[in-house]
Amino acid sequence: MSFMRERHRYLFLRILEACNADCFMCEFALSRDTFRFSPEDFAELLPKARAAGVGYVRFTGGEPLLHRDVVELVRLGADAGMRMSLITNGALLPKLAERLAAAGLAQVIVSLDGASAETHDVYRRSPGMFDNGLRGLRAATRLGVLPRVNTVVGPHNYLEMPRLQQVLTEAGVQQWELSALKLDRTITYPDPGHVREVCDGLYSADPRRTLVPMGKRFYGDTPEEQERYFSRSQPPRASRPLCHVVDDVIYVDGKHGRMYACSCIPHRDGDDGPSGAPLREDGVIRLDTPVFREHAGFFRDHGPRLCSGCSTTAAAYSDDVARLGSVPPWRY
Question: Is residue 4 assigned to a domain?
């Protein structure tokens, strides 16, 4: 029986862990892991996702474009009525953009952390990534694919954000997420006031003329959020009393056969609570199982107090649902 709901759900699917980039902040840097989520597994998953109310699917990694069947996976999802998305470092996007668009890709997200090749390629320790990323974004835009950029911001690059805003605006990028750098140590900004001075303008720019970041400020919107961020390296999270993201998200770690109620939960550090749910029961893919609902319910109730690794878009998504009752597509 179909699962009727007012809002569509998002399925995030990690289809591999291999990656061709060497980003200093990422656990998958230069991974040569051999796991691949197969088209057969995706074909089994799709009707279960549709019955659970999923309307949007995003492939993550690793680097999804290293998957030899990524175009077929996009086609399978689009043929099943899903709006398909993927996040990439952009290295292979110029080569694959036309095939992906023809297969039905609706949105592409490229990770860009600097305003030029001279900085971004150093941060990502991967020559050519910046130029290929921008070329791929422009190609995707011409092909009717919604272009988005995700940027990880920290003390090393926050000064570049105003220039990156200009670059992305000129490139025709339609969505931009700034997320706080998260490492297994305290992130120190010598002068929080200077971060605000440099970056507040990013969010207050005229959206009719300039690309404005989605979500909350990466350092927080309220004095309380900013205090937690600058003193404890805790990025902004969903406001109390409830996190509404977990009602709308199923994140699947294909390699380990686990599912979570948010894409941030598998990467959180030091939080209590149930660690997801198995994707298969008795060898069969099952979503919205009692174990999954218990897991989601825990973070719905306790995430705004416990979570330490939320993204700016997830936090804003939850707050917008609480305030408005719904959120436009692809805002997370």
Answer: no
SS3 153: strand
In terms of phi and psi (left: phi > 0; alpha: psi -120 to 50; beta: otherwise), the region of 238 is: beta
| Full residue range of the structural domain in which residue 157 is found | 9-324
Alpha-carbon distance of 88 to 59, in angstroms, equals 9
Domain harbouring 75, CATH code: 3.20.20.70
* Per-residue pLDDT tens digits for 293-321: 999 999 999 999 999 889 999 999 999 99
Residue 329 is encoded by which pair of tokens? Answer: 């597509």
The verdict on residue 330 lying in a domain is no
Q: Six-digit token pair at 247? A: 């009602």
Which residues, 6+ apart, have CB-to-CB distance to 303 below 8 Å?
237, 238, 243, 245, 246, 262, 310
Q: Could you tell me which of 253, 241, 264 has the C-alpha nearest to residue 180?
A: 264
Cα–Cα dist 308/234, whole Å: 6
**Residue at token pair 């492939």:** 59
pLDDT at 4: 42
Q: How many residues are recorded in the chain?
A: 332
Q: Which residue type sits at 255? A: K
Number of structural domains the chain divides into: 1
329 is a domain residue:
no
Identify which of 100, 42, 93, 104 has the alpha carbon closest to the alpha carbon of residue 71: 100
For residue 154, give the 3-state DSSP assignment: coil
Assess if residue 174 is contained within a domain.
Answer: yes
Angle between helix axes 129-142 and 161-171 (nearest 10 degrees) is 40
